[in-house]
Write a structure and sequence with these properties.
498 residues, alpha+beta, L,D-transpeptidase catalytic domain-like, SH3 type barrels, 2 domains, eight-stranded mixed sheet, five-stranded antiparallel sheet, 6 helices, 12% helix
């Protein structure tokens, strides 16, 4: 009995100490920074898109290249004939070992130096040239902005690195809700959002999983029209809005249901992130138009009446991806260039210094960003994933007939700690970081995957976007992804600031 009491007391002290580390006052330079303008032209630096190869003349034996496409086939050769072997995926490192002239212009021979399929490491195989590019994973890209997703609280935050010399901490631009992955009955936790350090590799507009797949594009001029704005959320699941049939085979019998499973599940835009390891860790929009997509985010989390009912029988959440409203993802598309770090954590939240918060942030200030979603750029990537920034759309001369929806995205940049509120099991935002009396309730609220309270390590400072003594929890249900060699960028460690 004494041991149990001692263990509980130790747990209380350790968690409280983690949440009450020495405050570090901070301030920002007087120069105007991007987080206080109207976000017309961000000027944030973008990572260079790696050049894809189209000719053997671009390569030499000994060059290090990478797989650019998400998955590609490899081949062995026997008596001059190619035989398909196992697949390799994006970011896999390859060395060119032969030009395979006997196979024409399509194939080269490579040695696989590293791969998500560990069984392929060290193998020599033939691959198609057009699936390869220069090596670029953006791991060392000196980004101007970055995104943090706290899976425990389902809060997404974007920060600007105002002082790249670490003389001042990053500054919050945006704080909003997101829906993390979770499926009932997923005993192996394969449908959860994974903690880890990622980079935005591509932006897609009106993304879909694949032609004939589960989730047809939100808009495509060749598809049936999407539901109207006044239609209920359930219409996005109806077969009349799907462009193809969804079929399964069980016990040798093929059964076709309605045409797809959900129309527009990825919403207006999708950020494809890497390293991904085939675990579908994208960040994307959702079903519905601008206003209704906001409601659908709450519904997926069970925060409204119908969502609460539906979530007792099934899960409306994603299968690993991070989902936000469509105006939010349109703003993120405009704001965050290729190469932007996305860091997914599972952490307790606090302020680095409450006095500095009040000095450097305005709690009442509201920001706006006008959007105009056009019909252009369907399933386009990079520049072809055309921004919905209204000013840019108007300057491009797009006719009003090409605009699907217009509106204004409103948000604040005042950092709010998401924590357990006294005598409540619900997660709430607050401008006070006093968590000491609430640590015992972590199993109930602000802890999506319900890990033990003593599994939390360190904390996340929501006002500065910095981690303090943080490590990913070692607990059942917390799955690690992203870069295996870099848990999070060094600029996120509070110890590295002056």
């Amino acid at each position: 009995m004494k041991k149990q009491v001692l263990k509980q007391l130790t747990l209380g002290i350790s968690v409280a100490c983690a949440l009450s580390a020495t405050a570090k006052p901070y301030s920002y330079p007087n120069a105007k920074d991007i987080s206080v303008n109207n976000f017309s032209e961000t000027g944030f630096k973008a990572g260079r898109v790696p050049e894809k190869f189209s000719s053997k003349e671009q390569l030499n034996v000994g060059d290090e290249v990478m797989v650019y496409d998400r998955y590609i086939n490899t081949y062995t050769s026997s008596n001059g004939k190619l035989k398909r072997d196992r697949m390799i995926g994006r970011l896999d490192r390859l060395t060119v070992v032969g030009m395979a002239e006997e196979l024409g212009e399509d194939y080269i021979q490579v040695k696989i130096n590293s791969s998500t399929d560990w069984g392929m490491k060290g193998k020599t195989r033939f691959v198609k040239l057009r699936h390869l590019s220069e090596y670029e994973d953006y791991k060392n890209f000196d980004a101007d902005v970055y995104m943090v997703q706290n899976i425990a609280t389902e809060k997404l935050r974007v920060y600007q690195r105002v002082c790249k010399d670490n003389s001042c901490p990053p500054k919050l631009i945006l704080q909003t809700d997101f829906v993390a992955g979770f499926k009932k009955g997923d005993k192996k936790f394969g449908k959860r959002t994974q903690v880890g350090n990622y980079r935005i590799f591509e932006w897609h507009k009106f993304y879909q999983d694949r032609p004939g797949g589960h989730y047809p594009s939100w808009f495509d001029p060749t598809y049936p029209a999407q539901p109207e704005k006044e239609d209920s959320w359930s219409k996005w699941f109806k077969g009349e809005y799907m462009p193809w049939e969804y079929c399964t085979t069980k016990d040798g019998k093929r059964k076709c249901s309605h045409s797809g499973m959900m129309r527009g599940a990825f919403g207006w835009y999708t950020a494809l992130v890497e390293p991904n390891y085939g675990q579908d860790q994208w960040t994307h929009g959702t079903i519905g138009w601008a206003e209704s997509s906001e409601e659908n985010i709450k519904r997926a989390k069970g925060e409204d009446f119908w969502g609460a009912i539906a979530n007792t029988f099934t899960s409306l959440r994603s299968s690993g991806c991070s989902r936000v409203s469509n105006p939010t993802v349109a703003f993120l598309r405009h704001l965050l260039p290729v190469g932007t770090p996305i860091v997914k954590i599972y952490a307790l939240e606090k302020y680095q210094d409450e006095a500095s918060v009040k000095k450097n942030y305005n709690q009442d200030q509201e920001f706006t960003w006008d959007f105009a979603l056009t019909k252009d750029g369907v399933r386009g990537t990079h520049k072809d994933a055309i921004s919905s920034h209204k000013q840019s759309v108007e300057e491009s001369g797009v006719s009003s007939e090409r605009i699907l929806e217009e509106g204004t995205f409103k948000f604040k940049n005042f950092p709010l700690v998401t924590q357990q509120k006294n005598k409540s099991s619900k997660c709430r935002e607050t401008d006070s970081s006093n968590l000491r009396s609430d640590y015992r309730k972590l199993r109930k609220g602000c802890n999506l995957y319900k890990i033990p309270a003593d599994a939390f390590v360190g904390s996340f400072n929501v006002d500065t976007g910095l981690l303090e003594g943080y490590a990913h929890p070692k607990a059942e249900g917390i799955i690690k992804g992203g870069f295996r060699s870099q848990k999070f960028p060094s600029f996120m460690d509070v110890k590295n600031y002056k």
